[in-house]
Amino acid sequence: MIRVAIFEDNKHLRDTFELLLSNSEGFSCTGAYPDCQNMIDDITDSPCDVVLMDIEMPGMNGIEATRLMKKHYPHINILIQTVFFEDDYIFNAICAGASGYILKSTTPNGYLEAIRDVQSGGSPMTPGIARRVLELFKVNLQLSTTNYNLSTQEKKVLQLLVTGKSYKMIASELFISQETVKSHVSNIYGKLHVHSATEAVALAIRNKIV
Amino acid sequence: MIRVAIFEDNKHLRDTFELLLSNSEGFSCTGAYPDCQNMIDDITDSPCDVVLMDIEMPGMNGIEATRLMKKHYPHINILIQTVFFEDDYIFNAICAGASGYILKSTTPNGYLEAIRDVQSGGSPMTPGIARRVLELFKVNLQLSTTNYNLSTQEKKVLQLLVTGKSYKMIASELFISQETVKSHVSNIYGKLHVHSATEAVALAIRNKIV
DNA sequence: TTTTCAATAGCGAAATCGGGGGAGTTTACA
DNA sequence: TGTAAACTCCCCCGATTTCGCTATTGAAAA
To answer: Measured from the CB, is A191 under 7 Å from any atom of strand D?
Structure first.
């Protein structure tokens, strides 16, 4: 039996969901709330396994609510359902800890299946949403294609520089003299077109050279 | 009519897919190949819209093949289908440019629907796969939840430090004395628990403080 | 009203960094 | 076999950074 709580400001939808869950084998509705004002108390009073969360709600929106809920009840799976198909919403919902993200056009059976999915450790998503997630994923990677032609030793030095090591420490870690480290650093600056350690480190991290 | 090419080394499965596609309304099978040795030529001879790609194949594997295919035919949507449920495969498949990733347990109808989904710009995924993607996504973000309590001025200084500015330049940009910059930097180090500019910059970028 | 704290500023000393130069050895490759 | 690149090391020197302190101001909080 999967216990489900509903947060949805539209009364008609809310009632429909409640009815659907109450009349479906293997599901129970522990509560249906129009907003998240007393969410934590509500859930404390009536524990649940899955939350069906609307995004657009008066007061606290569904994404904020998701963040808050995950903070208090990390084990509860939250299924976002919305009419919004926007990167910002998707991105933030994921970061907030949502386990699934479906569009409101889903059929009654689709809802039940999605709830079953999140409960069993999956992340149901409308294929269109999933595509957006993949795109966001790839944008986030954006591996640097530029090759700075750093030698292996220079890369090592740069790596250590990134961790905040001084020339002296780098020297002892690589078993070379500080002067050699200086040489390498100087060459690195030349190749990276920078003039200080901080710039080099910033570039290195941003471009995932190290 | 969605034109589909199949790459699958298992003859039984390959034949099954071909039969399924040939006998389904709105689908046609442009080819069914046991490996990717002549993939590009095959597709050039028999153009398609969607590729159903197995991962485990002799010679070139499905992920490499996906990468190659996307290079030559960026508009072709590639649907990965596999028995493997591993982060590495999922991660690499996404990076290679796959549009969907489904498990082989899917029903015949599930395959057809997934093909329709990728063709119409979606990314069908088994909910379990989707969960892995979300996890990978979040690991990749690793948003810092820790609050370092930097004051507004300290944040400005840190920002400028990240760009490689010296104390002197920071001082003139913020219209304060170098001594003040020194104070701020010192306080930043204390709050960030670091002892050098490079460490502070690395931490700042990685935790997206700036 | 008192306390707290961010922001400002200064001084001194030690350490580190960055640029300039030069030069030897090894390794890779054509 | 010759050459280029990488790796190594050294010296000089000024600029910069880092770490101690102390201290005033003004605004906000208690």
So the answer is: no
B49 Cβ contact partners less than 8 Å away, ≥ 6 residues apart = B2, B3, B4, B76, B77, B119
**Is the CB of A166 less than 7 A from some atom of nucleic acid strand D?**
no
Rounded to the nearest integer, the mean pLDDT of chain B is: 89
Alpha-carbon gap, residue B138 to B141, rounded angstroms: 5
Structure tokens at A104: 């409101």
Q: Do B123 and A134 touch (CB under 8 A)?
A: yes
Q: Which residues of A touch B196 (CB under 8 A)?
A: 164, 166
Q: What is the four-CA torsion angle of B48, B51, B56, B58, rounded to 10 degrees?
A: 10
Nearest to B11 by CA among B44, B54, B45: B54
Residue A103 to chain B, least CA–CA distance (Å):
13
DSSP category for residue B203: H
Q: Which of A71, A115, A198 to mutate to test the interface with B (most CBs of B within 10 A)?
A: A198
Q: What tens digit of pLDDT does each residue of A110-133 get? A: 999 999 999 999 999 999 999 998
Distance CA B202, CA A202 (A): 7
* A135-159: pLDDT as tens digits: 888 776 665 556 678 888 898 999 9
The answer to whether B186 CB sits below 7 Å from nucleic acid chain D is yes
Nearest CB among A126, A140, A164 relative to B198 is that of: A164
Over the stretch A69-85, which tens digit does the pLDDT of each residue have?
Answer: 998 999 999 999 988 88
**Where are any strands of DSSP class E within chain A?**
2-7, 27-33, 50-54, 77-82, 100-103
Cβ distance A81 to A124 under 8 Å?
A: no
Mean pLDDT, chain A, integer: 90
Tokens of residue A25, six digits = 């084998």
CA distance A35 to A47: 17
| Sheet containing B100-103, strands listed edge to edge, beginning at the edge strand earlier in sequence | B27-33, B2-7, B50-54, B77-82, B100-103
Sheet holding A100-103, edge to edge: A27-33, A2-7, A50-54, A77-82, A100-103
Interface test with A, best of B201, B203, B206 (most A CBs within 10 A): B201
Of A75, A84, A24, residue with least CA distance to A51: A75
Asked if B183 CB < 7 A from strand C, the reply is yes
Token pair belonging to B68: 């190659």
Q: What residue type is assigned to position B170 of the chain? A: I
In B, which residues are within 8 Å of A133 by CB distance? 123, 130, 133-134, 137
CB A95 within 8 A of CB B142: no
